[in-house]
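From the pipeline queue, job 12 of 40. The input is one protein chain; the requested action is below.

Action: predict structure.
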Amino acid sequence: MKFLYIWISLLAFLALAVYTFWLGVNSASPVLPFGNEYIGLSRKEMIKLLSLIWLIGPPLLMYIHWGVFCRRYDLINLELVQHSHNLLRNIWLAILGAIIVLFGWGAIISS
């Protein structure tokens, strides 16, 4: 169960990262690669939604991982999990920084 949770989370956020950076690099492109008629969101709304997902999603998943799967670990495994979470936190902060650089702070927080 734990490994399934980790792999599904990892693949989902990897796909989300690819889409986020595709949207940031291709500023003249539609929101979706195959057209916008299915989602009804503008580019600005999609940027806000992706930013919110990136802001809340990874810390929430790390908290669930820690609270559900790591409660019964011994000290050696807990240190390994802490190291992994520290690494993931740093990657998450780098992705947030890249999102701010790609889209600009104003595009993320403007109303």
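Job complete. The CA atoms of residues 65 and 75 lie 17 Å apart.
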